[in-house]
Amino acid sequence: MSILIKKAKLDGERQDIFIKGNHIARIDADIDKDADQIIDAREKIAIPSFFNGHTHAAMTLMRGYSDDLPVQQWLEEKIWPLENKLTQEDVYWGSKLACLEMIKSGTTFFNDMYWHFHGTARAVEEMGIRAAISAVLIDMFDEDESRRQMEYNQELFEEHQQYSDRIQFALGPHALYTVSEKSLLWAKDFADEHDLKIHIHLSESEDEINGVLDKHNLRPVEYLDKIGFLGENVIACHNIWLNDNELKLLRENDVKLVHLPVSNMKLGSGFFPYKKIKEHNFSVALGTDGCSSNNNLDMMEEMKFASMKAKIHTMETTTLPAEEAFDMATINGARMFDINAGKIAEGKLADLLLLDLNRPEMTPNYNTISNIVYSANGASVDTTICNGKILMQDGYVDGEEEIIEKASQMATDLVNR
Length: 417
What we know:
CATH superfamily of the largest domain: Metal-dependent hydrolases
Distance between the termini: 45 Å
Helix content: 25-40%
Structural class: alpha/beta
CATH architecture of the largest domain: Alpha-Beta Barrel
Strand content: 15-25%
Number of domains: 2
């Protein structure tokens, strides 16, 4: 299978991009090659596709279900009771809807933590994008449940091998207030043994900090460092309430950070300390969180809010410029999950987008990256390619009507069940 993209704007010049198999084989001003598919991209700009560093994909079924409530009331009275009703089929259709939304807004990879692992994996496999998928590991400090969770994740690790290499298996210990030390240490050992990522919520709220302090007389990062949990395979999400010592410990252990600006604003969680984090030279990616706390999966919107929120926090217009926000949504995410993408270059995986230059929000085009970060939105994406396959062209994804109809039905049934 081959694709020839003709005359796309790339790094300020008109270039042809030849894709063979699932890699970018050649980039040149004029490529004279036969291809199975040819795309006329004279009115398009080519950019790498986006990496969503933290999601609960099937929560698309809960979009708008319980907005603007206090966080604990939102969780305890609305979200958790609804999640207790979820079936694998619910998660499958909710995840298909999430994949559709991500494809249409230019995302080809997401890092997910949710219930019913195989529902999400089936959806990703069918939709043609990439994901790191972890089951939610929660034991609520119960030894029997801890043992069950270990056995379940071992089974899932074996079962995940039925899927393509577009799907990474990860471990998902939920948070320090829901997972015992025994389970945390098991997750660390198992992940190290099998070269897996560990996906965890960290320092999201002030209540979380106070709870860990009361229990261990240590802040969350200090506690994780003491028990030997931290490491280069840990993907920590949120990271709002970090002090200087915690930043130092995270950096010393090469922990990767995911920033979730929209979710953190909506839930009133606080400010991601980007200026200090940058001073420590962290690897930072962006994520959306689930659709009950965002409420969309648009990484262009996430880039804009990341930059704006950092500027408000520091009261400095130079904080988190457009180029840095763009890297957080592309190359940083690719590196974080060991995927040979995030940049359009020969030898890279063919994961890329074509944006329509003739849209009003892209006009005029003094600075393309600034337009993408501050002006564009998911609807600006014309074509999405992942793993050398066209998943969307001219803004249309095959089968999107069925997915929207079925997911809407599943959401209604879930609420009424």
